[in-house]
Amino acid sequence: MARPPRPAAVAPYNLGLPAPVLLGLSSLPAAPCAPALPVPAADTSPTATVLDLIAGDMVEVDRVIAQRLDTGVPLVSQVSKYIISAGGKRLRPALLLLMAGALGYTGEQRFNLAAVVEFIHTATLLHDDVVDESTLRRGRATANESFGNPASVLVGDFLYSRAFQMMLDADNMRVMQILAEATNVIAEGEVLQLMNMHDASLDEEAYLRVIRSKTAKLFEASTRLAAVLAGATPEVEDACATYGQALGTAFQVIDDVLDYAGDAQETGKNVGDDLREGKTTLPLIFAMQRGTPAQSALVRAAIEAGDTAQLSKIVEIVRVTGALDASRAAAAAEAQRAINALNGFSSNLYASGLLQLAAQLLERRA
């Protein structure tokens, strides 16, 4: 497989941000320094346009998913199809497909591994909603609300085990290593989040450790897998992983912002769910740092008790202290890090789409 050639020098793509304000340096190696790809301005194309690039590929992924959900146990198929068909952009498999396109890989295995990451993601959602006692996801009742906790947990286990069966089809030990590590790190992130529940003393570093484990790791694995399939160099593989990790981090920060600035009809979840669950997310961390002693005490007490009785006051504190803007700036810094990771990649529609996706993430409303 030919390596992605270096492009001729072009004007760099930049979100026009100051230096990263919070989230610091990745543990992954920096992307190779080279001219960035040209892409249109961040607000000129909806995310759907980027995903249109892989619409045909996603049809094939859906075919694999339907085939692999075929089982002799009706409840397994029923619960699995319920949550997988609930909507969403299927961003993780989409990232794998887009990165494969950026690197010129067109093999069939991309469909199988895209389905694998979607199965792993779906399994985490099933387990998350049970742990969090969530009742609403993507605008409709969660699987645990509809089918009960035992069914949700066991079907999540089925999806994990099915994903590991499918990994073998790649016949590639590196693929197994990436996905085994990812699932382990995700599980560690879930436990870390559980340990941090109702802990109002959580700082930015501890918050970042959780979201990079729980959320960003599967983004990172998805983009790294594409590089492995394409036979990319270690340097390019690390750059792909950096893109995925940074994008996943930004994605989760914006998700946490939407818990206090979003609309339930748009986000598909109840506003204030994070507070009810006792999660100390970045908007609350900033609000406690920036607020008056009385404001900080109110937020702290609500986190420790998981109390949403004062939700309207807390939403106002988060707004007036500038915590939402500071959180968005942190997400923007991560989005820029994702964009920078692709410096030096070949200029094609898929690579430009990945850059556009990072820029558009900041406009996310659901």
Give a short summary of the structure.
The chain is built from 18 helices and two strands.
Which terms would index this structure?
mainly alpha; 2 strands; Farnesyl Diphosphate Synthase; 366 residues; 1% strand
Describe the structure.
This protein is mainly α and 366 residues long. The chain has a single domain, classed as Farnesyl Diphosphate Synthase. It is 65% helix and 1% strand. The chain has 18 helices and 2 strands. Helix 5 runs antiparallel to helix 7.
Low-confidence stretches: 1-12, 16-46
By DSSP (H or I, 4+ residues per run), the number of helices equals 18
Could you give me the name of the CATH homologous superfamily?
Farnesyl Diphosphate Synthase
Overall CATH class = Mainly Alpha
What would CATH call the architecture? Orthogonal Bundle
- The CATH topology label is Farnesyl Diphosphate Synthase
End-to-end CA span: 38 Å
> What's the overall average pLDDT, rounded?
86
Count all strands and give the number.
2
The arrangement of helices and strands along the chain is HHHHHEEHHHHHHHHHHHHH
**Dominant shape:** globular
Main β-sheet, spatial strand arrangement = 1-2
Write the layout of secondary structure elements.
Elements: H1 47-52, H2 55-68, H3 74-84, H4 91-102, H5 109-132, E1 136-137, E2 140-141, H6 143-147, H7 149-167, H8 173-196, H9 204-214, H10 216-229, H11 234-261, H12 264-267, H13 273-276, H14 282-290, H15 293-305, H16 311-320, H17 323-341, H18 349-360
Antiparallel strand pairs: 1-2
